[in-house]
Every structure is written in C-alpha cells, then in structure tokens.
Write the structure tokens for this entry.
Amino acid sequence: MMGWCGGPSRIGVVIACLLVAAPTGGDSHEWTQFRGPSFGRSSELQLPTQWDQDSVTWKTPLEGRGASSPVIWGERVFLTSYTGFGIKADDPGNPADLQRHLTCINLQSGAVEWTKTYPAPSENNPFTTWAVALHGFASSTPAIDKTGIYVFFGAAGVLALDHDGNQLWSTSCGTGTHQFGAGNSPVLFQDLVIVNASVECGDLIALRKSDGHEVWRRSGMQESWNTPAIYLNPQGATELAVSTKDRIFAFNPVDGTPLWNCAGVPDYVCPSIIAEEGILFASGGRRSETIAVRSGGQGDVTGTHKLWGIAKGSNVSSPVWHEGHLYWAKEDPGIVYCAKADTGEIVYEQRLQPDSGRIYASPLLADGKLYYVSREHGTYVLPAKPSFELLAHNTLEGDDSIFSSSPIPVGDGALLLRSDRYLYRISARP
C-alpha cells in the first residue's frame, strides 16, 4: 500500500486496491499494482502457512523507510522508500533533506539492481509524531506495465521511469500537503495514469502514460486517502470509483465523465473500494462503517442502488471478498471480521490475540487462506471461511522493524513481506 490513510485521531497505511478490466501483466510473477489485479486475491497455491527464520530465502536491507507495497514485473521487484527527514520521531530533522527512492530488487536473489533518488521539491513537508511518524513519506505503491514504472510522490508529483530506472517524465499534481501525509497509489488504465490527488489539490487526475500530459481532471476528492478502483459494472462497462468523505463517485475512466454518485462514509476515508460482480464495498471513518452499492447507475443512486450499510468496518486497511463473504481487519486493536456480502450481516468479529496490535496492511487471500500482517506482532494466517480459526501466527525473530505493507505472492510458493527496513522472501517449509 501501499498508500496510507489517516484521520484526526489516527493514522494508518491505506491499502489501496484495484481490479482492472483486463490484466496488465502476462505471467504469474507479475503483481503490478497495490493489491494486485483482483483486490487482494491471488490464485497462487502452496503458499506458506507457517514460517520462521529458516523459511527466509533472502532478506534485503532497504535504502530507507517506507510503507508502500512492492510490485513485481517478471524477475524484478520495485518499491519506494525515503530518507533524510522524519526517520526519528524525536528528531525529525530538516524537511529540505527529504529524499524519496525507487529501488529495483532481483526477485530470485534479493540483490539490489538499482536505486533512483528524488529530492523533495520544497520544505513544505509537515511532520507529526502521532501521524506521519507511523507511516512516513513513501506510502504510495508504484504501478507498472510494459511501458514503464509510475510512482506518485505526493507534492513531488508523478514520475514515469523505464524498467531500467531511466526517468521518462515527471508531472506535478499539486503542491498541497497534510499533517497526516499522503500516499494514494496510481492506477493504470489503457494509456492513462490515474491519480487521486486529494491532498495535493483535491482532484482526480488522468495523465497520458507516454508524456505525462493531463487528459482529464475531476474535483471533489475531499478527505480521500484511498486509491481509485477500476471494475466492470453489471452492464459490462468499465467504471472507476473513488470513496471520499460523504460520497462515493463513479466516472468513465476514459474521459472522466461523471456516471453516478452515492452517499458514502461521513468521515475521512482510507480503505479503497473493492468490487465483485458490479457490487462495490466501501469502508472507512473513525467509527469504521461499511457500505455496499450496486454500480451501473446514473446520477444520485443513494435511494436506488445502495444495498446496505453497517456500523462495522475498517479505518485503515481495505477488505477482501471470497465466496460471498467480506473479510477485513480493524486497525486497532487487531480485530478481524467476516460479513455476508449480500446483507452486511456480521458472521464473526474476533480479536486475533490479546497483543496482536495495530493492522495497517490489507489482507491477502490466496491458497484458501487469509494473511493479516500486523505492524509489530507478525503475520496471522486464517482459513478463508466464514468461521474463525487461527491457523498460524508467524514472527521473524530479532526483527523489530514495522510492517505496514500488504504481503505479495511471488508465484512459486513464496511470499514477499516488506517492513520499513527490509524486504523478505518467505518460502514454504520443506
């Protein structure tokens, strides 16, 4: 996410999610956007359930801190990080020294192939010990396809690079900053890079992939710390939706034409929308509500297409859908939920462990299992079924770094886990 999310009393890592109408990658090694091509779901099998230090194929120290998730293209992993400012909460340093990095790591060996560094454009980078200190200045997950790598660095803009790290272009999406930071991840659609620049200018912006020129822009992205979702509506047409304070908006991703809107969460929104068979599920707010709405409408569809709303949900991480049920984690204090997707009825609400702590990463659903990564207390593995069971609780001995990123399936029975200091490749026990 990884993107981040925050609010007047809490800050977190947003785990932005996206389902594209057509996959951008080719083979199973490609995980090209935050949460992959299917809202955090993977068809990979034989993924590890239990692990320890002996399960670590490689462990790569990172250039700096960060909360974004890795993406994969072929045999390369790409992720963002930052240095120079805001590393220590008690001594953040000079904001003029902030630098952001994009690093390319070999998927098989863990070796760093290259790192590119980008200074912040100004000293306007607010730091708050109770907010930005929890996720930092590199919370936006890159998006990648055969044309290049696209990274959103907040007030530093969107950067496009080729697969060898050569910069192709950069475009500003506004210079606004926020005491909660920023981190919405870019998404790709056809020849466009689409960014929710809520913090930077309050707009949803589509840029041309080839040169970064603006193609369309829509305003109204109020208190929206989440990544746009692209999906097919019940009529088979492609829509793009964003969850904002008080409202969910849907657009035609080709030209930005407004399609429909619906009453949403009446507070800041961090989790990204997910979609299944044209039904959108949006969560967020300090009271953590969840809403289901049928896509494909016109104008204000609150009275006709909103299916249900419940006073249960996630403040930070995005949910995942599986076989008619929604699964999600509430940030603090590590409570996981299962709800019926057609009615919103809660099936279970269970604290993982007394000391499970905060969960900012969105869950991965793969191999019939749910993977919930906590910031400080390891990874919890549950069966993807509507009854609570804890299959495993995995920790990496001696690592006290912070894990805010969603786990990534590699494609050969392994997972990538990213902390604010290391990237791990975890394999199944023999």
